[in-house]
Write a structure and sequence with these properties.
The protein is α+β, with helices and mostly antiparallel strands. Helices cover 38% and strands 20% of the residues. The protein has helices at 17-36, 50-55, 59-62, 83-93, 138-153, 166-176, 180-191, 195-205, 209-217, 226-234, 238-257, 318-327, 349-360, 374-383, 417-422, and strands at residues 40-41, 47-49, 67-69, 76-79, 102-111, 123-132, 159-164, 222-223, 263-266, 280-285, 293-297, 311-317, 339-343, 365-368, 388-392, 401-406, 412-416. The longest helix has 20 residues, at 17-36.
């Protein structure tokens, strides 16, 4: 018999039961943070018409969409590569008359055809929020505070959020009035944090001295509150000055929250240049080489769908979060069924009655239907992380009794089946009362 092919496509991943439990733990923790802040969950379709998704999706992301043909209509479909355009369209069409602000949360998967990155595949999972209809800096502060609270809820330590504002650099570029190709060169040098290349480009462009000094200073505008004062001193155009003022207000509010120590400012960061319209951030954890969360203001997005409204949002990359949790030794309780019923009787009445009674009270119950010796059944139960084993028909108990084994501490008790059915909570803590 030929072996079945087991290789996954490049960029695909399977979460086995223990991994899936850790994943669900992280997602549940994050969603609980979002709901505590007043966000309601939204579930969107995995695929839509490609041209509809393209309306709100940047060109480089569109190129990496997985596409297929709708056999019914012949139209091109696409798997979502980013959930934010989907939510923007939904708000612009079905929720536009809802009172503002609108707070939405999600836990979902997205698909992108690109080279897998650090703990990041072609199908990857995100947990995030979108806050629609709030123009004030409090909106950015709210999502930044939630991101920090989410990291703490996951038990993570040694993290830092890097805040930037693309309009600071945009204002300098407008003041420079250089050809788009030269601006792209400046952005590329900044993206590489290549101060020498940046200085060389500035010398070639030969702008007025104050502007040249501002451009050359971009890689150094990194750090704490003092960065804002330095940036304000070199922002000689309105757009850059507004960016500094906005970031200063965000930082002031974060200080009131007591979260400023978790934040670093970086006005030379340009990775969000094409997407964000205002303050944005990325979250990093010490020892991990990629951002585990990111987001910011994207006021232009809803206008693509004919509805001009302010918007901010952010998302956690769940796989990266799991990698960091493992690296930092964050313990996640992996539990199995509460009860495992082993039955050596021919009629199964007691076993089936117990299983139904315990499940009705909210306990998880598995039965050992395979015929095997007691020790083999108990070994299986321990491998499944079962809490208690109930043995019906043991030679060590009477006809109306069962043997209850605590697999955590090794203790055992003989119980009367009828008494256990009448009041399970009397014998097992945590099981609901009748």
């Amino acid at each position: 018999m030929r072996p079945l092919p087991a290789q996954l496509p490049k960029g695909a991943r399977v979460y086995l039961p223990d991994e899936a439990a850790r994943k669900r733990h992280a997602e549940t923790r994050l969603l609980s943070v979002f709901t505590r802040w007043g966000y309601r969950e939204i579930v969107t379709s995995t695929y839509e018409y490609a041209d509809v998704l393209a309306t709100g999706t940047d060109a480089d992301v569109q190129e990496n969409m997985f596409k297929l043909v709708d056999r019914e209509t012949g139209r091109l479909l696409a798997l979502r590569a980013d959930i934010t355009p989907q939510i923007a369209r939904i708000v612009a069409t079905r929720l536009r008359d809802e009172p503002k602000p609108i707070r939405l949360a999600y836990v979902t998967n997205v698909f992108r055809y690109d080279e897998p990155q650090v703990a990041h595949y072609r199908e990857f999972y995100q947990a995030g929020v979108e806050l629609i209809g709030l123009e004030k800096p409090e909106a950015e502060v709210e999502i930044i505070a939630m991101a920090i609270e989410g990291l703490r809820a996951l038990g993570l330590e040694r993290f830092q959020l890097v805040l930037g504002h693309p309009d600071f650099f945009r204002g300098l570029c407008e003041e420079l009035a250089a050809e788009p190709a030269r601006v792209r060169e400046l952005r590329a040098a900044l993206g590489r944090k290549d101060a020498a290349a940046l200085a060389g480009l500035v010398r070639q462009l030969a702008p007025p001295a104050p502007l040249g000094e501002a451009l050359a200073a971009l890689p150094t505008l990194f750090g704490g509150e003092a960065v804002l004062e330095r940036a304000a001193g070199i922002a000689h155009n309105k757009r850059s000055a507004r960016a500094v003022a906005n970031l200063a207000e965000v930082y002031r509010l974060l200080k009131i929250y007591g979260l400023a120590d978790a934040v670093t400012l970086d006005l030379g960061e340009v990775r969000g240049f094409d997407y964000y319209s205002g303050t944005y951030f990325e979250a990093y954890v010490s020892g991990f080489g990629a951002a585990v969360a990111g987001g910011g203001r994207y006021d232009q997005m809803l206008a693509r769908f004919g509805y001009d409204s302010a918007a901010v949002g952010f998302a956690f990359d769940v796989a990266r979060i799991l990698s960091v949790m493992e690296a930092q030794g964050v313990a996640v309780a992996l539990v199995g069924p509460d009860f495992f019923i082993i039955d050596f009787t021919p009629d199964k009445t007691a076993a089936l009655s117990l299983a139904r009674r315990l499940r009705d009270l909210g306990a998880s119950v598995a039965r050992d239907i395979i015929s095997r010796g007691l020790e083999d059944s108990l070994a299986y139960a321990r491998a499944q992380r079962v809490r208690w084993a109930l043995v019906v028909g043991s030679p060590r108990t009477g006809a109306d009794q069962l043997l209850a084994l605590d697999l955590a501490d090794g203790s055992e008790r003989t119980l009367v089946v009828a008494e256990l059915l009448a009041d399970p909570a009397r014998f097992f803590r945590g099981v609901g009362h009748a």
